[in-house]
Automatic annotation (TrEMBL):
Designated name of the protein: Putative phosphatase YcdX
Highest taxon above the source species: Bacteria
InterPro entries attached to this UniProt entry: Phosphatase_YcdX_put, PHP_dom, PHP_phosphatase, Pol/His_phosphatase_N, Pol/histidinol_Pase-like
Similarity remark: Belongs to the PHP family.
SUPFAM superfamilies assigned: PHP domain-like (SSF89550)
EC number(s) recorded for this UniProt protein: 3.1.3.-
Residues binding Zn(2+) 1: H7, H9, E73, D192
Primary gene name: ycdX
GO BP terms in the entry: bacterial-type flagellum-dependent swarming motility
UniProt-annotated binding residues for Zn(2+) 3: E73, H101, H131
Length: 245
């Protein structure tokens, strides 16, 4: 459906089951041009050590014509918006997603969740907020959409939220998509794959976007260049190997 997938996990997050090579093979088979590996930040119990993220610099940029982005799904740690991605990790990564996960930030109330999410966006480190429609973490949806537009942060519509995890997300995600549409912000689509088989599956995301007539020109996944331009606008360096994307 789209040639870019921005959220997936490998065996480095030990509750996932595919390798980097598995994702490359599946991307080539499906026509995915660019994807981001985003294993969990090190504050999660089964996450890789921070050296895993620093050492991503050894990865090739392109394999068989498929582009690979070095990413993380960091954890929002507190109401101040601190995430578990800092120091030399920041210099090794192309894409930083950040979100709530119960082992790191236990659910509180709407005010706390909203404050923490907006503080994370304001910090300037996160490019995308993962699964903001999680019903366990209610937020002030208009407020987070307006903050996302202000800080040029994309809010994710997460396909796994509708089929495997975070059940009951549909209404929140529909409201988030509508609020982002009205605020003029970006959405990012993520399969949140924990096996390579679901790479690039945005079937349920597409239903949500269609329900609110979300504009195609505000979806980061439509082309690799759109996503890369977004990251460069956020201050990330241009990646020479992707110049033709």
């Amino acid at each position: 459906m789209y040639p870019v997938d921005l959220h997936m996990h490998t065996v480095a997050s030990t509750h996932a089951y595919s390798t980097l090579q598995d994702y490359i093979s599946e991307a080539k088979r499906k026509g995915i041009k660019l994807f981001a590996i985003t294993d969990h930040g090190p504050d999660m119990a089964d996450a890789p050590h921070h050296w895993h993220f620093i050492n991503m610099r050894i990865w090739p940029r392109l394999v068989d014509g498929v582009g690979i982005l070095r990413g993380i799904e960091a954890n929002i740690k507190n109401r101040e918006g601190e995430i578990d991605c800092s120091g030399p990790m920041l210099g090794s990564l192309d894409l930083i997603i950040a979100g709530f996960h119960e082992p790191v930030f236990a659910p509180q109330d709407e005010a706390a969740h909203t404050e923490a999410m907006i503080a994370t966006m304001a910090s300037g480190y996160a490019h995308i907020i993962s699964h903001p429609g999680n019903p366990k973490y209610p937020v002030d949806i208009p407020a987070i959409a307006q903050a996302a537009a202000k800080y040029n942060v994309a809010l994710e519509i997460n396909n796994s939220s509708f089929v495997h995890s975070r059940k009951g997300s549909e209404a929140n995600c529909r409201a988030i998509a509508a609020a982002v549409r009205d605020a003029g912000g970006w959405v990012a689509l993520g399969s949140d794959s924990h096996t390579a088989f679901s790479l690039g599956d945005f079937t349920e995301c597409r239903k949500v976007l269609d329900d609110v007539n979300f504009p195609e020109d505000r979806i980061l996944n439509v082309t690799p260049r759109r996503l890369l331009d977004f990251l460069e606008a956020r201050g990330m360096p241009a990646i020479a190997e992707f110049a033709d994307f």
